[in-house]
Write a structure and sequence with these properties.
heterotrimer; A alpha+beta; B alpha+beta; C alpha/beta; A: Beta Polymerase, domain 2; Cytochrome-c3 Hydrogenase, chain B; three-stranded antiparallel sheet; about 15% strand; B: alpha+beta; Alpha-Beta Plaits; four-stranded antiparallel sheet; 6 helices
Chain lengths: ~575, ~180, ~270
């Protein structure tokens, strides 16, 4: 069966205590606490895995321990042609380990696999689990005024409605930024309320003249405490709507990922028509999100004309969503077991008409933008994401595909209706803003074709299963959906009484932030907003906090000249000797 | 650069005239839930389904009325209430002009329903309309006269008393006919 | 929990008269500063959509500004997360008096779906005084335009508090069954909703019942098969047509004794042929 190969290989390296299978392509291996870093590193670098998510969990009521789940997507390193696992062997392998509530300490994986950095910081914030050896132990998710030693996601910590007292607002707590050493460095604060950023987030850019030499950021201004809320107040029927409000742009992808995780945990197959409509709606979401991002990438470089045109076209995609789901932005049609809104012939006809309009007009405007030399000079060569940095930090979506790595959940782990659909994964080399926008444009085209295929292949079945299924407490599974900016991964462990025991929601941007620091370095200050924009960040998605450059201690020793040279030539990476 | 200007010329003026002319949203747009008080039976299905708890169904302080209340400010327009309502008392309309000035209470809709008291313990447990509706459903569902007569009693009992009565029937050796 | 208390001088400079005076004076040129207090971003996107050429609020003088010190109106979204509480107050105090505060979206108005979570403070008006509320999750751009023009007095407010206090007589709600058994209608409606959702399922239900009654005798499987097939043939929409057939095969056959041949062969019926 799938996954067995990896478990076998892992067994030669570390001692595996127990293997459990969640579904066809998901398997969990329990290892000893001390073997954890080596197990994750082995799967990540030696077997070709990417870090999908990490879930800390309070399982004291189940097995008297805290648990950590490191989920890896086994798909191949993809650094060069052929460096990929065969299509039918791709799967998810989860490394599980148990932590005793007396010690609360686990060995950090971050020094071996940098991609884990945010996850391990969050484990401390939410559960008080200390990663021994983690270079950056600052707060990530919770607000600066949150009391120490109160860990909200512990089951016995507090009521989900408990709100500790606020500080006087003149005494607002300060956040400590990692500042590079050296003279003549100017701090440029950006945010949390800034005109080029739609959402709050605080960036601290460290500049030498006009050049950014380093950056640090404090995000998670939007942490709302959804995971705890869902565990306490919501049942499965309501959770989909909460998940949809994780993010206002890729919310639908969250909604399906969340519900599919619950469905996968009990192996519930939904009707084919519902699968097709889920795909249609998520592709409509991709249309509007990519148009939004391309528009904003024009806007932050001052090209208002193109911005307005792209937003004019984007209104068609919003109209399309309104037609198919009844809402422009929140589609609200996902429930466990299927869907709650069908598409009839009238809608299909009108949708096809609108798709035609979008397709022609996008081409017109894109052609005009490509023709504009000034616009191109602002996009090309800016904010480069090095391929090796991408491999280390597991970024997702157009961000990694713009660096020439072919990672797309729809292709690697086809879900729902994608098994029956033909499409090409958009991959562009270069890693700069231009490459990322090009990926988005190519995906716009493929989304239009995917929606058309779905309308054509959509079978005439019911849209929801018979409501006779039962949830099984302590069953858990991962679900993954390729949202416009990368894969959204939800992990659900079912509880009793129609509620979840633990819901872990990992948004695409969560994996993209940690590598942003490297994209900033060596660029002009004026491009900072553009670089952030080209990530298509979703601050609210991340809903947790700051970046960590685990290597910052070493990189501080580097001279500015080194960094500048690196940014200009992309050769002789100053980081290479750290690996 | 010039190409963009050509595109502007091609598509001309596209601004909607709204608010000076009405704006038509798509059919089946999910707008403000419209409440028809006459059809509401106080079953609280909407209150249970509502993900954001915008709809609440609660007794008032002296329990003489069952109060259905909807706060449009908290509504997330998902349409769950519409989906679960058995009588069509709440339906999403296409209304999107919802803004209010200064006084937030304009966002609230409420309805007071008379309470049904338990015939045995005299505690309030439901709305009168719900009992009436349940009986109406039963009477048209092809059940026998005798069964209907029994239902009349049972429907007016609170869940606790109903349980006690059922247990008493069983343990008392009386025969129960279920058709 | 103790939150912000408005300093005296700000309160005195923000009375209702002063605000109305400001609204009169700014007329058709007002500057808006947008504060995202931890919203999911949906509202920001719709504000963005509302400033594009399709809606063009500059017709009313709406202008987004980069600094709260330039603003007449603060447009706040989000349920006010703990971490945004401080920046919100900094922006509020920096705005010149008198200032108009608009709460946008379900979260801004009441906290929305997050209203009782630990890391939020349940809406803008729990922290600072709010003058206009625009509900919606997120509001349609037209709602935003309407809300802003209402705040400015161009449009009239439509919603008023509605309270029904007299529990009158309830009209009979349950219609007579076409089959003499309301369980048939119940099952039919459930299945119709499973097939085509609550929105279209009810229409499908009506269409099917209408066709069934057309047959003259609802309990005769031969007659009903003919009338349903006919209805399927004149139906424009293939989805409705097919679902009518599925309903007939799956539900009707449970209530009336049918042979296998009384089922409709869904592959043979051609629809849309008026």
């Amino acid at each position: 069966m799938k996954c067995d190969k990896f478990i076998e290989a892992l067994g030669t390296r570390v001692k595996i205590l127990e293997v459990t299978r969640q579904c066809d392509d998901q398997v969990t291996a329990l290892v000893e606490l001390n073997d954890l870093p080596e197990a994750v590193r082995f799967l990540y670098y030696d077997m070709g895995g990417y870090l999908t998510t990490m879930v800390p969990n309070d399982e004291r009521s189940i097995n008297k321990h805290y648990a950590l789940y490191y989920a890896l997507s086994m798909e191949g390193g993809k650094m060069f042609a052929g460096d990929e696992i065969a299509q039918d062997e791709k799967c998810f392998v989860t490394i599980k380990t148990l932590i005793s509530p007396d010690s609360l300490v686990f060995p950090s994986v971050t020094p071996l696999v940098p991609a884990c950095v945010w996850y391990e910081r969050e484990a401390y914030d939410m559960f008080g689990l200390v990663a021994e050896g983690l270079p950056d132990k600052r707060r990530l998710v919770l607000s600066d005024d949150w009391p120490d030693n109160l860990f909200p996601l512990r089951k016995d910590a507090m009521d989900y409605r408990y709100r500790p007292d606020m500080k006087d607002h003149y005494m607002e707590p300060e956040y400590e930024f990692l500042r590079p050493e050296g003279s003549g460095i100017i701090d440029v604060p950006l945010g949390p309320l800034h005109i080029t950023a739609d959402e709050p987030g605080h960036f601290r850019l460290f500049c030498d003249g006009d050049t950014i030499i380093d950056a640090d950021y404090r995000l998670f201004y939007q942490h709302r405490g959804m995971e705890k809320l869902a565990e306490n107040r919501m049942n499965y029927d309501q959770m989909g709507y909460l998940a949809e409000r994780v993010c206002g742009i890729c919310g639908y992808a969250h909604a399906i990922a969340c519900i599919e995780a619950a469905e996968k945990a009990i192996n519930l197959e939904i009707p084919a028509r519902a699968q097709a409509i889920r795909v249609i709606c998520s592709e409509i979401e991709r249309l509007h999100s990519h148009l939004l991002n391309i528009g904003l990438a024009c806007e932050v470089t001052g090209n208002y004309n193109a911005f307005m045109h792209i937003f004019r076209i984007r209104e068609y995609s919003m109209k399309l969503a309104e037609l198919v789901t009844g809402g422009r932005k929140t589609y609200g049609n996902v429930v466990m077991g299927g869907l709650r809104r069908d598409i009839t012939g009238v809608e299909i006809k009108e949708s096809l008409r609108i798709l035609q309009i979008i397709e022609t007009q996008v081409d017109e405007v894109w052609d005009a933008v490509m023709d504009d030399k000034r616009q191109m000079s602002r996009w090309k060569g800016v904010g480069i994401l090095d391929k090796q940095v991408a491999r280390d930090f597991s970024p997702v979506g157009p961000n990694i595909r713009g660096s020439g790595i072919k990672r797309d959940t729809r292709y690697d782990h086809p879900y729902d209706f994608f098994k029956q659909i033909q499409f090409d994964v958009a991959v562009v080399e270069g890693g700069d803003v231009f490459a990322r926008e090009m990926v988005r444009y190519m995906e716009l085209k493929s989304s239009v074709s995917i929606i058309r295929q779905c309308f054509e292949l959509m079978p005439q079945t019911a849209i929801i299963v018979d409501p006779t299924f039962h949830v099984k407490p302590e069953n858990y599974a991962l679900a993954y959906v390729e949202a416009p900016r990368g894969d959204n991964v939800h992990w659900i462990m079912q509880g009793s009484a129609q509620k979840v025991f633990r819901w872990r929601c990992r948004a695409a941007t969560y994996n993209n932030w940690p590598s942003l620091r490297f994209q900033f370095r060596g660029n002009n200050l004026a491009d900072a907003a553009l670089i952030v924009c080209s990530l298509d960040p979703c601050y609210s998605c991340t809903e947790r906090v700051t970046v960590v450059d685990i290597k910052s201690k070493k990189s501080k020793i580097l001279t500015n000249a080194d960094l500048k040279n690196f940014a200009r030539t992309q050769k002789d990476s100053p980081l290479k000797d750290l690996r | 650069m010039m190409k963009l200007l050509d595109i502007s010329k091609k598509y001309g003026e596209i601004t909607h005239k709204y608010p000076f002319e009405p704006y038509k949203v798509s059919d089946n747009f999910r707008g403000k839930p419209a409440y028809i008080f006459d059809l509401c039976i106080g079953c609280a299905a909407c209150g249970i389904a509502c993900p954001s708890n915008a709809i609440t169904v609660q007794f008032n302080d002296d329990k003489s009325k069952l109060i259905w209340e909807f706060d449009c400010g908290r509504c997330i327009f998902c349409g769950r209430c519409d989906e679960v309502c058995p009588t069509g008392a709440i339906k999403l309309s296409e209304e999107f002009e919802l803004a209010v000035k200064f006084d937030k209470s304009a966002l609230i809709q409420r309805g007071e329903l008379d309470t049904q008291y338990c015939t045995t313990c005299h505690k309030p447990f439901s709305a009168k309309r719900l009992v009436k509706y349940s009986f109406e459903c039963l009477s048209k569902a092809n059940v026998s006269e005798k069964r209907l007569e029994e239902a009349k009693n049972y429907l007016c009992m609170c869940p606790t008393c109903k349980k006690t009565a059922t247990v008493a029937t069983f343990t008392g050796g009386k025969e129960m006919v279920i058709e | 929990m103790k939150t912000y208390e408005i300093p005296n001088e700000i309160e005195l400079a923000n009375t209702l008269e002063q605000k109305l005076e400001l609204l009169k004076n700014i007329g058709r040129s007002f500057s808006v500063f947008r504060i995202d207090c931890g919203s999911c971003n949906g509202c920001e996107i719709e504000i963005f959509a509302a400033i594009t050429p399709l809606w063009d609020p500059e017709r009313f003088g709406f202008k987004l500004v980069a600094n709260p010190r330039h603003a007449d109106i603060l447009l706040c979204t989000g349920p006010v997360t703990r971490q945004m509480y401080y920046p919100l107050l900094r922006a509020y105090e920096a705005t010149p008096d008198p200032k108009i505060v608009v709460a946008l979206g379900a979260c801004g108005v009441t906290g929305g779906i997050f209203y009782d979570a630990y890391s939020v403070l349940s809406g803008i008006d729990k922290i600072i005084p709010v003058d206009a509320y625009i509900p919606g999750c997120p509001p349609h751009p037209a709602s935003i335009i309407y809300g802003l023009t209402t705040a400015l007095g161009v449009m009239e407010q439509k919603l008023q508090k509605v309270s029904f206090e007299h529990d009158g007589d309830m009209p009979p709600l349950v219609e007579d069954s076409v089959m003499g058994n309301t369980l048939f209608e119940r099952d039919l409606l459930v299945q119709a909703k499973r097939l085509m959702s609550y929105v279209f399922g009810r229409k499908l239900f009506d269409k099917y019942i209408h066709a069934l009654v057309q047959s003259g005798n609802t309990k005769d499987p031969k007659a009903t098969k003919v009338s349903i097939t006919q209805a399927m043939q004149v139906e424009d929409d293939p989805r409705y047509a097919e679902c009518m057939g599925i309903l007939h095969n799956e539900i009707y056959t449970q209530y009336v004794l049918c042979e296998e041949e009384d089922k409709i062969d869904l592959h043979r019926v051609v629809w849309g042929a008026k």
